[in-house]
Amino acid sequence: MDHFDAIAELDRQSVLHPFTYLKGHASGEGPVPVIIEGAKGVRIRDARGHELIDGFAGLYCVNIGYGRTEVAEAIARQAYKLAYYHSYAGHTTEELARLSDRLLRMAPGRMSKVFYGLSGSDANETQAKLVWYYNNLRGKPAKKKIIARERGYHGCSVIAGSMTGMNFYHDHMDLPVSGILRTGVPHHYWGAMPGETEQEFSQRRADELEALILGEGPGTVGAFIAEPVLGTGGIIPPPAGYWAAIQAVLRRYDVLLIADEVICGFGRVGTPFGSHLYGIEPDLISVAKGLTSAYIPLSACLVGEKVYAVIEEATDRVGPFSHGYTYSGHPIGAAAANAALDIVEREDLAGKAATRGAYLLQRLTQEFQQSPIVGEIRGVGMLAAIEFVADRAHKTRFDPALKVGPRISQAARERGLIARAMPHGDILGFAPPLVMNEGEIDEMVDITRAALRQVTDELV
Ligand code: PLP
């Protein structure tokens, strides 16, 4: 057994991995654990020296690319200076105050304050508590239900996991909890009726949302949470008119809008936030991932003026805001975020995501539109997806047992590219670092072509 086999064996015996077939992993019958050892730019390298293009930026998070030493240096500087102090009872650090001011200036809508956590899940958990707290404090204790979308992804903690609209995050884990309602996914390709335009389809989704709110009673519905571009549910940009129609309904019934910008925030869709692109005016915003480009865990809830004014005013009556984590506003996280966002701004990564994302989509369309098993190619900024179908004319899906999406993803991986098989249907997703250049995009497309050809040949 060599050194790396020994590490793999230690892992098998000791790590409970997310999204892994546990028995195969523990017994050694499953895939060999991949020991990731280094990374630079858009490429990661395993311990045996194999290089892979990371077409998914880790989990849509390493927006500035790997190996940016100035972020590592900012982390080290802060660790030497002050590794930790809490942010309870008005304690702060220079990095934290600067980061918060900066986020408020970058953000869409009228944001007032920033609360910090460590993950997208805990940010959305906090958002639910803010909705409940806000409505309790303004004398509407029944206005608590939160509407989320089918195939929305908001994390996997208890409330955020309940907001997530995918069954396998719930099954056997006693989720969803009560008080989370579900509305339809805005995917025109599968959801539209024959001849229905995107605008009409968007309006139908908004009408369904309105019917749901009226059915439940507007006095019981506190918030609606959604990603500007639906992410893990399949990388689905909204159809034309969707956000305008949805926001009109929310305003009519005094329902707060939580924009889950965990993927879209900080340039991924070609604008600073997804909300900027779609004219979304959120009351609350969740961010994580691109906030530090995942150099260290950090998330934030941006709290809009409307909500903040109520909770500030109530402090004299109900006491201090009683929510916070040991690591809320961690100084090393704040320093990492400031350094990562310096890069995002200096290198105009939002602008680059717009132009290179357009190039990526154009290349994917050019290469794969004619493939007999490609149903839809979609994307915005540096988010793109190819959806595979058994029959284009009749829009029929493949038998899930064929695992077409996972097989194409695996074939790409064997050729040196990570592109993710998304969990619903047969979808290959791309969310590369925003620093990926056109040559690297071409490499990604070439590998995808070879992978698709292999699996198409196997299917005939
Ligand atoms: N919200 C969105 C839109 C996400 O994509 C994710 C993670 O992928 C989360 C929330 C949860 O974030 P985390 O995995 O950091 O808890």
UniProtKB/TrEMBL annotation:
Q: SUPFAM superfamilies from the xrefs?
A: PLP-dependent transferases
- Pfam families tied to this protein: Aminotran_3
Per the record's keyword annotation, is Zinc included, yes or no?
Answer: no
Entry cofactors: pyridoxal 5'-phosphate
GO MF term (any one): transaminase activity
UniProt lists the family membership as follows:
Belongs to the class-III pyridoxal-phosphate-dependent aminotransferase family.
* Full protein name: Aminotransferase class III-fold pyridoxal phosphate-dependent enzyme
Organism for this UniProt entry: Ancylobacter pratisalsi
